[in-house]
Amino acid sequence: MTRNMGIVDRALRVIAAALLIYAALVLPMLGHGILHWLALAVAAIFLLTSVVGNCPLYSLVGLKTCRDC
To answer: 64: burial class by Cβ within 10 Å (0-12, 13-18, 19+)?
Structure first.
């Protein structure tokens, strides 16, 4: 699998994932309903794509945010 995500993109996804996890686990407005699980699922996807360095949606669209790939 080739990389299609740059370092800045990956870092922003990790930050967004951390904020979503915080919102899901700490903020009472999400509770334990569908928004809670949706926030955790999106955070997991963001973390997974950041670690791998490949976003399937970017591949479909033909977008690359890295300079050397």
So the answer is: middle
For the chain, which residues make up each domain, given as ranges?
7-61
Q: Return the C-alpha torsion angle 13, 19, 21, 22, nearest 10.
A: 160
48 falls in which pLDDT band (50, 70, 90)?
Answer: very high
Q: 5-44 b/e with 16+ CB inside 10 Å = b?
A: bbeebbeebeeebeebbebbeeeeebeeeeebeebbeebe
Integer Cα distance of 11 and 50 in angstroms: 7
Task: Determine if the pTM surpasses 0.70.
Answer: yes
Tokens describing residue 34 = 């569908």
